[in-house]
Design brief:
alpha+beta, four-stranded antiparallel sheet
């Protein structure tokens, strides 16, 4: 693919892949529980979310939380604490189920009946790049009308599909789209 960066950071530029910035922003919009899973409050919040309905329990089991109902009850009552591995499973299941539950809502808000959402793309940080090697990369704004592939890839936690969907959208920037493969931030609201 033309314009893909081969050796990012070779001369000191800093930033993250654009699709990673989009995923971070979608995570913020999803409204995950902020309290860490390692605290009692954070664990209880996640377990209540994953066990409050039979549908939620099925989704948690499909997402990888395969402990017995007896063990879940012991965790909720505080009689036992989950192991580090089970804490990771709880966190992964919670994020997977939350993304799946929020995806349809976010998609409707971002597409806005075909009007789309304005996205601000903040270019990579070149402050550590020697002056002769710096290039002019300005702040850009873009209106994305079709978020379906981006949100579906984010909900499935598929990094490659999210990267492909993001690149398909930033190609609308014209011949300079490759300069925005790495960014400092991508901002939008839903």
């Amino acid at each position: 693919m033309p314009e893909r960066t081969q050796e990012f950071g070779k001369y000191g530029a800093r930033g993250i892949k654009g699709y990673e910035a989009v995923a971070r922003r979608l995570d913020v919009l999803a409204g995950f529980v902020v309290t860490p899973v390692t605290t009692r409050r954070g664990l209880l919040a996640r377990l209540h979310y994953l066990t409050r309905t039979p549908h939620a329990r099925e989704a948690a089991r499909a997402a990888g939380l395969t402990v017995t109902d007896r063990t879940l009850k012991a965790w909720l009552d505080g009689r036992r604490s989950p192991s580090k591995k089970n804490l990771e499973r709880v966190e992964t299941a919670y994020r997977t189920v939350r993304r799946h539950n929020v995806a349809r809502y976010l998609l409707g808000r971002l597409n806005r009946e075909g009007r789309g959402t304005r996205v601000e793309i903040h270019p990579l940080n070149q402050s550590q790049v020697p002056r002769p090697r710096q290039r002019v990369v300005e702040f850009r704004a873009l209106n994305i009308r079709r978020w379906d592939r981006i949100v579906a890839a984010w909900a499935a936690d598929d990094a490659q599909a999210l990267d492909d969907a993001w690149v398909d959208q930033i190609v609308d920037l014209g011949s300079q789209w490759g300069q925005y493969e790495y960014v400092t931030n991508v901002g939008f609201a839903a």
